[in-house]
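Quick one:
INPUT:
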């Protein structure tokens, strides 16, 4: 199958490319590298011994996006491209709406022009907001609490409307929980710019000596040990969920929102212990006040993914930490300059 992958040079995109290419699909990446490196694609080519077509462009540029889609004529699209930092979305909301929402309407219009009817979209568990009950199932009310989350909820609605209005359309909205880890080779992984916002890349940078200590945001939550509990999902399992979702779009019409998580909550303290075990490094830490906006607990109901996609997570927290450590210790400063591989 021919798959057009927006944001394919990014963290989740690059891991998904490896699985797509290994499964024999042909891919074309559309990315402006605003949060990624061409080296990631070079390494994907190296890992898979396959070519990856690449168009450098911005999803806000409707003409460029349409030209690329019409030219490639894909059977399906996976839409990763977007901005994802919650804090930045509070400071620059219009940038988030333009990139995530307008970029997505541009993409759907370009798909219409290219006569492409199948899409898998990167949504997020953040669309649920504050838990009214746990685990979060797909029927849980939507109530995002920041501009980033609102862009995801809006795009879900737009894709759902598009699917209803478009004969033979099929869309899957994948609501990711907390993606972590790296490819087992350690050649591709998460390479955040600046100070990492998320727990796992921060822990990894402390382990490798780039940062002095981890600040744990609160130990007085209503959880097993007082630290925040999340559903971490190995990025390779997540990549496989995209292939399962693509298959699904080939056998069902309409639009479905589907959680992608393990169904298991892991606390910050538990994750640190697992990372110490995987890395053999001490990981100094301090307890600081809660981060505004954080919830105590978040984890997924996984029955819908199992039923519709025939997919479930296979990799545990130890595998997440071991692969993250391999990537971080082999690439302490992240990807090298473009041109090197
Ligand atoms: P990432 O930043 O590594 O990848 C996003 C890619 O999109 C990057 O390569 C970036 O250069 C590209 N991009 C951004 N704006 C673009 C634009 N205007 N035009 C073209 N390309 C553009 O992020 P990721 O972690 O791989 O996330 C992928 C998707 O999954 C995003 O939509 C994100 O919101 C969503 N998501 C991520 C997480 C997470 O924790 N990583 C959780 C839930 C949902
Ligand atoms: N966290 C932390 N220190 C950090 C980053 C995160 O203690 O430097 C905690 C955070 O409070 C939450 C968990 O780790 O309980 C996961 O945070 P992350 O930002 O990775 O994911 P999200 O909160 O968006 O689910």
């Amino acid at each position: 199958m021919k798959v057009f992958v927006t944001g394919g040079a990014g963290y989740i995109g690059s891991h998904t490319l490896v699985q797509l290419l290994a499964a024999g699909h042909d891919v074309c990446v559309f990315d402006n590298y605003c949060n990624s490196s061409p080296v990631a694609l070079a390494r994907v080519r190296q890992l898979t011994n396959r070519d990856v077509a690449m168009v450098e462009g911005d999803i806000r540029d409707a003409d460029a996006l349409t030209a690329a889609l019409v030219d490639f004529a894909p059977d399906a699209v996976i839409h990763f491209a977007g901005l994802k930092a919650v804090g930045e979305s509070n400071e620059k909301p219009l940038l988030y709406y333009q990139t995530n929402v307008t970029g997505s309407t541009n993409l759907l219009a370009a798909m219409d022009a290219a006569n492409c009817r199948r899409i898998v979209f990167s949504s997020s568990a953040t669309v649920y907001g504050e838990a009214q009950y746990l685990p979060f199932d797909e029927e849980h009310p939507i109530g995002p609490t920041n501009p980033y989350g609102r862009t995801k909820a809006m795009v879900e609605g737009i894709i759902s409307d598009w699917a209803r209005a478009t004969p033979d359309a099929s869309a899957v909205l994948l609501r990711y929980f907390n993606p972590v880890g790296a490819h087992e080779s350690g050649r591709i992984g998460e390479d955040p710019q600046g100070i990492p916002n998320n727990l796992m890349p921060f822990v990894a940078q402390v382990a490798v000596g780039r940062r002095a200590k981890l600040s744990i945001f609160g130990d007085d939550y209503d959880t097993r040990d007082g630290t925040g509990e999340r559903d971490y999902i190995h990025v390779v399992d997540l990549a496989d969920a995209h292939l399962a979702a693509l298959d699904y779009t080939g056998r069902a019409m309409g639009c479905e929102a589907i959680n992608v998580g393990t169904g298991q909550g892991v606390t910050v303290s538990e994750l640190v212990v697992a990372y110490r075990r995987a890395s053999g490094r001490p990981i100094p830490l301090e307890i600081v006040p809660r981060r505004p906006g954080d919830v105590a607990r978040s984890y997924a109901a996984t029955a819908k993914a199992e039923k519709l996609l025939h997919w479930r997570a296979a990799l545990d927290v130890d595998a997440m930490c071991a692969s993250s450590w391999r990537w971080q210790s082999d690439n302490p400063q992240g990807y090298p300059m473009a041109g090197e591989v």
